[in-house]
Amino acid sequence: MEWLSDAFDLAQQWLFEAVVQPLVYAAGLGGWAEDAFDATGWLLVGLVQIVVLLAVIGPLERWRPVEPVRDRQAVRVDVIYTLVHRLGLFRLALFFLVTPLFDAVLGWLRGNGWGTLHLDELWPGVTDIPWVAFALYLVVLDFVEYLIHRGQHRFAWWWRLHALHHSQRQMTMWSDDRNHLLDDLIHDAIIVAAAQLIGVAPGQFVAAVAVMQLSQSLQHANLRLAFGRLGERLWISPRFHRRHHAIGIGHESPGPRRAAGPPQGAAAPSGGSEPRAAGSVGATVLGGCNFGVLLPWWDMLFRSADFSARYEPTGIRDQVEPDEQGRVRDYGRGFWAQQWLGLKRLAGRA
């Protein structure tokens, strides 16, 4: 851990001095140099992740794809989402828009007795080992991620934003960051607050986010890959997560509704799997399965895991089943269209 941290620090220092710092001073923003140095760390992490995507996960997709890529435009839009998030552009916007408010809220919490709990001090001699502390924080943050994801599928208003992520019918390694920006703002606020309250150090937080993002890029890949009977229960695989994106399965739960056939273009449910949600045309019952981000343990604990060995078509039921007026829902083709339609869904107008 120490040599890796040292190597990262050297690379961050070089990138800052060679590229970022001259730009900051040229723009007359010398007073922001310290913040720019922190932002350089996120930029470096993003660049490393994109290299891994192109050099490792991309070849895996071409090696064993689940399906041929027919909608290149949809994939190109997902690339835009990835660049916006992995290169720090979204965090830069958050810094100027909401960081002062967020700092004020955290200050208020601490002023009212909600001090930081340092989990790495709970078991002296064990949790003060760097990799043990990092693993502990990663597990706790992963549980928070699971709860957030359950909320995104539980509350109708939140689902209207999160549905954009599920509307991708051509899933690839670029699909992880395909989210509504307001959904990302809510998610990031919760994660940062949780990290602050349990005492995650800044460097550990950057590393934890990087691990989560890279793993999720692999999970979303157009890749026919599972980790075996034991491995599937230790770390989330592309097959496990693809089930979460399956039409009529991953974002719906069974309910007292009129029986309906499987969505158009979707395979019949496999034997022994969680029952496919039945329902009237265009209707859904919020819920689903396989909400985990890194570890399937929480799905197993709360009985939301589905380990079916299937690779179902991905998307949302109302994209493929017309409503009573014969219409299917439009989630937008371009970046800004998708953002605008998400706000309209939130307002109940789309």
Quick structural overview:
The chain has 350 residues and is mainly alpha-helical. The protein has helices spanning 2-26, 33-63, 72-86, 89-97, 99-111, 130-154, 156-166, 181-198, 202-220, 228-231, 238-244, 297-301, 317-320, 335-346.
What's the arrangement of secondary structure elements?
Elements (H helix, E strand, L loop, with lengths): L1 H25 L6 H31 L8 H15 L2 H9 L1 H13 L18 H25 L1 H11 L14 H18 L3 H19 L7 H4 L6 H7 L52 H5 L15 H4 L14 H12 L4
Helix pairs in contact: 1-2, 2-9, 6-7, 6-8, 7-14
Please tag this protein with its features.
mainly alpha; 14 helices; 350 residues; globular
Q: Return residue spans where pLDDT drops below 50 for at least 5 consecutive residues.
A: 257-283
Strand content: under 5%
The percent of residues in helical segments reads 55-70%
Number of strands: 0
Report the sheet with the most strands, covering strand number, pairing sense and barrel closure. none
- Overall geometry: globular
Q: How many individual helices?
A: 14
Q: Whole-number average pLDDT?
A: 87
Through-space gap between termini: 49 Å
Strand pairing plus helix content: what structural class?
mainly alpha
- If you compute it from the alpha carbons, what radius of gyration comes out, rounded to the nearest whole angstrom? 21 Å
Helices and strands, in N-to-C order? HHHHHHHHHHHHHH
